[in-house]
Specification:
alpha/beta, 2 domains, 6-stranded mixed β-sheet, 11 helices, globular, binds coenzyme A
Amino acid sequence: MSDALPTYANVKIERDGGVTFVILNRPEKRNAMSPQLHLDMCEALDWAADDDMTKVVIVTGAGGNFCAGQDLKLFFRANEGNPKAMRKTGAASQSWRWDKLSRFPKATIAMVHGYCFGGGFTPVIACDFAIAADDATFGLSEVNWGIIPGGLVAWCVTQIMNYRDAIYYSVTGDKFSGKEAAAMKFVNKSVPLAQLRETTMELARKLEAKSPAAVQYTKEAVRSVRGMSQDQALDYLECKSNALKALDPEKGREKAMKMFLDDKVFKPGLGEFKRG
Ligand code: COA
């Protein structure tokens, strides 16, 4: 298989070992999301999901900003009166920002610096983890130009923010910093900008070292049980556990049990067993 990385008009791919950066790449427009960017992100995420070398995906933006939301000119104005184009780009826009990212089979981290507005919230929320620069600027600015946080944004926001914060920031359009985002657990943590990449990579390396199957099944399980009753969750988690046991190509469970119970060379409470 070729190691060549794919190229796209509005998305850049970079690799650092098993960690793949998927980068929104319209820095001159603060990475506002054009129709082409949406189509490129769909392709890029499909590629990264299938790419054997990729164990962890970091989603970020080029040029010091995460994303200035939908491109008002190319996504909204240019599509006005063209329902076919709106349907196509609207579907691509929802597909990568929520469907593909929230169901991504590998660990995902949003690395947020600079501006993150409106529609840029969706991929941050869809990623499993989010780390922001202390001075990043988040804002649900839709209200400032007379629209609502549509295209799933309002729904995504209520998945992660408490109700008071969701209403407050949606209705006022007030900005909040990376530090404030961390305090309200909108992101996992914030760090000074100079440490953003290093801190994100530390987490990525930790995830990269774990069993890919265990990571995938665990994140799927946590995501899925949120909407279930206790009975449904118990049944589902039993099926999910059995599926992992049967399908894990590394047979991690058996190996780890042997290493802990028989060989006594590993303590599961203190770190992952040596894979491979
Ligand atoms: N849609 C279309 N173009 C955008 C854009 C957006 N969401 N955000 C930025 N741009 C464009 C600007 O029009 C400008 O283009 P130009 O160079 O052709 O004039 C370029 O990106 C740089 O933006 P500018 O406003 O000059 O940069 P700034 O650093 O001073 O301010 C922002 C950056 C993000 C604060 C400001 O551009 C802004 O408020 N953007 C809109 C954010 C928003 O409300 N998004 C929600 C949409 S759902």
